[in-house]
Design goal:
single chain, alpha/beta, 8 helices, globular, Glycosyltransferase family 2 protein, Nucleotide-diphossugar_trans, Glycosyltransferase_2, Glyco_trans_2-like
């Protein structure tokens, strides 16, 4: 059986201090392509990522979802024989542990899941890596998902892996903060098999664009809840 093609998509906004570390920690030989989407950075994120061997795209419209959609358009905008079989998403701020990527891919490779979420709630977190408002927001969103769909969700973690077939079937649309929860809500509605894998989590390098500001926190919380109830 041929080895599945894996594409890694990393949205990045002003991650010059972190992106080289993230790319260096992706296990060698695991991915056929690592795509860094520079989401309107004002620093040299692009240059560092390109020098580290990544494919670099520029998405000038600010928004996490915009960046992820740009990465998907690149990955699937080529002949089918060159498209990925599996896609991994992770952040570019060095809060995730890229070396855990094989653990996220394992349920997909065994045919046991369509979508795998790296759960920070189930894993080991560095003190201070998840702020109180993040912990509460994740708990509330997970609770609502479980009430509506009868699952056992614990997190909306950005570190996740999904089969290409499932990702295309989900039909992602969100452009900003609702990206992760939209994927999980739609997967549940479609009856896709979603599992969680415990992942480690550490303090990010730099200041968070979401939890680091009151505006970002409120905006993300509103969009996550709006997305859940939109599909309720």
């Amino acid at each position: 059986m041929p080895q599945p093609r894996v594409s890694v998509i990393i949205p990045a906004h002003n991650e010059a201090g972190a992106i080289a570390l993230v790319l260096a920690e992706i296990p060698a030989g695991l991915a056929q392509e690592v795509i860094v989407v520079d989401n309107n950075s004002t620093d040299n994120t692009s240059e560092i990522a390109r020098a580290s061997g990544a494919t670099v795209l520029r998405e000038p419209r600010p928004g996490y979802g915009y960046a992820c959609l740009a990465g998907m358009a690149h990955a699937f905008g080529r002949p089918q024989s060159e498209q990925p079989d599996l896609v991994v998403f992770l952040d570019g701020d060095h809060s995730d542990f890229p070396e855990q990527m094989p653990e996220l891919l394992a349920p997909l490779l065994r045919g046991e899941a369509d979508l795998v979420i790296g759960s920070r709630a189930l894993g080991v977190r560095e003190k201070g890596s998840l702020l109180p408002q993040q912990r509460f927001g994740n708990w509330l969103a997970a609770r609502l998902l479980n009430i509506r769909y009868g699952g056992t969700v614990t997190d909306l973690g950005p570190f996740r892996a999904v089969t290409a077939a499932a990702l295309l079937r989900i039909g992602m649309e969100d452009k900003t903060y609702g990206w992760t929860v939209e994927m999980q809500v739609k997967a549940a509605r479609l009856g896709l098999r979603t599992v969680e894998v415990p992942v480690r989590y550490r303090k990010r390098i730099g200041t968070s664009k979401v939890s680091g500001t009151v505006r970002g926190t409120l905006g993300a919380g509103y969009k996550i809840l709006w997305t859940i109830f939109k599909y309720w």
